[in-house]
């Protein structure tokens, strides 16, 4: 579902999170992730995390791609289910950036660059990055780091967190504020960071193993990343925010070797996600994308051929070569008719061909098998709108946004669907939710106020708008208080 894909440039918070590795098995891992509980509560961390996410959406919108969101969400939550000391919900997001990086922050938010897909050789390597960032959160490294800073500066935890919030909203001002607050304790911060990085490696490898991934994925990924950038004048952001001295790599290898050898089947979904990134998020033109796929097709195993053909089909869809794309998609769907990667691409294809009923039939069959699936639901609503059937799409999108209130794709589609039938009140309301997700509280309140003025006086509709205005004003005040 290509229509509402969003792109972004990342903001690296990992430099504040960050590396003591011991060679004991995971049952000996201590529970040391609660040292900050006395100064920064979990509820407060959730507030800060929500605020950070809203600012990130506003400053550089995160990619909103239902298929990629589903893939990294499933991968991330498989790891979270096997992590220790989980105290928050987790949220996983991608930003469009070819550099290799990932970061984690308050509230269970993990954000990864699409560049990770260009450097990971398999799913265990990709999962190792997510496991590392999850461990930063479960061990509350950012909160513990701030607690240590607060002991060495005259500033409070609130002041330090306020500087972080400012750093996201206004990077230059925030960096200046952070420099001022940490000027007297730089070496202590570096040592604390190294300890956190190694601790995240240790817990991350244990999580990888318990979740069924290859624990060697972490040292393997670190190893070829270090080899690739060994002589580079400018290392990737990940090696700046996650330093990789030889001792750390050796310790990670030693720890992974303590686990039994694992032989895993090839993850087709990982390679499909990788192909999608190359086709749509690698910032290269269509000819270079097709060249990449052609070169890899020659040397890939037969099991990976469908993933490469899928990438080619995406390029053909995006460049209007629908006949070539359709030939590929028919083959892929014949062998795997309920694969969401394929169904999403087929929806784009038949939308371009204006064969809306063909797309709807494919999606209906899949929804019978996977009711309420987010990828299928969003595609189905989008095709209905393309077919000038917005009235049918609106109730679907209303249910979807109720279940997924933080999904900008759903609100964007709902706003457009209401605009197409001239329902200005509901268009304003949906747009208001988009403004709120980007912390633009004034515009959100203004939109709902206009909708309330248009509604019949004393109606349930007006009461709903007025109640939402009250909620947004409360959120605005709470958001302002965080700064």
TrEMBL record:
One cellular component term (GO) for this entry is: periplasmic space
Q: Which residues form the active site?
A: 133, 201
Q: Report the principal subcellular site.
A: periplasm
Q: Which SUPFAM superfamilies match?
A: TPR-like
**Binding of Zn(2+): at which residues?**
132, 136, 197
Any one Gene Ontology BP term: proteolysis involved in protein catabolic process
In residue terms, where are the TPR repeats? 340-373
Names of required cofactors: Zn(2+)
Question: Where would you find this protein in the cell?
Answer: Periplasm
Residue intervals of the Peptidase M48 domain? 69-255
Signal peptide residue numbers:
1-25
Q: Annotated Gene Ontology MF terms?
A: metalloendopeptidase activity; zinc ion binding
Q: How is the cofactor bound?
A: Binds 1 zinc ion per subunit.
The reply to whether Heme figures as a keyword in the UniProt entry is no
Name the keywords, alphabetized. Answer: Hydrolase, Metal-binding, Metalloprotease, Periplasm, Protease, Signal, TPR repeat, Zinc
What EC number(s) does its UniProt record assign? 3.4.-.-
Say what the protein does.
Answer: Functions as both a chaperone and a metalloprotease. Maintains the integrity of the outer membrane by promoting either the assembly or the elimination of outer membrane proteins, depending on their folding state.
Family, according to the entry, reads as follows: Belongs to the peptidase M48 family. BepA subfamily.
Could you tell me what this protein is called?
A: Putative beta-barrel assembly-enhancing protease
Query: From which organism does this entry originate?
Result: Vibrio algicola
Query: What taxonomic classification does the UniProt entry list for its organism?
Result: Bacteria, Pseudomonadati, Pseudomonadota, Gammaproteobacteria, Vibrionales
């Amino acid at each position: 579902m290509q229509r509402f894909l969003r792109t972004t440039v990342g903001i690296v918070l990992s430099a504040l999170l960050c590396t003591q590795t011991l060679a004991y098995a995971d049952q000996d891992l201590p529970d040391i992730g609660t040292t900050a509980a006395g100064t920064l509560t979990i509820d407060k961390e959730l507030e800060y995390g929500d605020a950070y996410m809203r600012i990130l959406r506003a400053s550089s919108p995160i990619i909103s791609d239902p298929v990629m969101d589903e893939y990294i969400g499933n991968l991330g939550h498989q790891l979270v289910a096997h992590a220790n000391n989980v105290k928050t919900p987790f949220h996983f997001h991608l930003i469009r950036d070819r550099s290799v990086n990932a970061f984690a922050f308050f509230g269970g938010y993990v954000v990864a660059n699409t560049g990770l897909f260009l450097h990971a050789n398999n799913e265990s390597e990709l999962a190792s990055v997510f496991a590392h960032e999850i461990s930063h959160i479960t061990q509350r490294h950012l909160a513990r780091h701030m607690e240590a800073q607060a002991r060495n500066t005259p500033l409070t935890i609130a002041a330090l967190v306020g500087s972080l919030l400012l750093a996201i909203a206004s990077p230059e001002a925030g960096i200046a504020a952070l420099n001022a607050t940490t000027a007297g304790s730089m070496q202590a911060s570096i040592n604390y960071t190294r300890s956190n990085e190694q601790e995240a490696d240790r817990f991350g490898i244990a999580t990888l193993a318990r979740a069924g991934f290859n624990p060697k994925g972490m040292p393997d990924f670190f190893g070829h990343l270090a080899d690739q950038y060994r002589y580079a004048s400018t290392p990737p952001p990940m090696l700046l925010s996650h330093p990789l001295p030889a001792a750390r790599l050796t310790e990670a290898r030693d720890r992974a070797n303590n686990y039994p050898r694992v032989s895993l089947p090839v993850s087709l979904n990982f390679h499909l996600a990788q192909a999608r990134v190359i086709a749509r998020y690698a910032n290269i033109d269509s000819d270079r994308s097709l060249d990449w796929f052609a070169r890899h097709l020659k040397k890939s195993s037969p099991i990976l051929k469908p993933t490469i053909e899928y990438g080619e089909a995406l390029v053909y869809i995006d460049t209007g070569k629908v006949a070539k794309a359709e030939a590929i998609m028919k083959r892929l769907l014949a062998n795997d008719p309920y694969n969401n990667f394929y169904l999403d691409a087929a929806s784009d294809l038949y939308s371009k061909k204006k064969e809306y009923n063909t797309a709807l039939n494919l999606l209906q069959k899949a929804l019978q098998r996977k009711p309420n699936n987010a990828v299928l639901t969003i595609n189905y609503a989008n095709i209905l709108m393309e077919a000038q059937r917005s009235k049918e799409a609106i109730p679907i999108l209303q249910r979807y946004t109720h279940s997924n209130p933080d999904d900008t794709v759903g609100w964007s589609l709902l706003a457009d669907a209401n605009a197409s039938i001239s329902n200005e009140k509901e268009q304003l309301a949906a747009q208001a939710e988009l403004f709120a997700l980007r912390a633009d509280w004034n515009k959100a309140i203004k939109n709902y106020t206009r909708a309330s003025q248009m509604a019949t006086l004393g109606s349930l509709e007006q009461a709903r708008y007025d109640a939402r205005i009250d909620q947004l004003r409360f959120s605005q005040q709470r958001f302002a208080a965080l700064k």
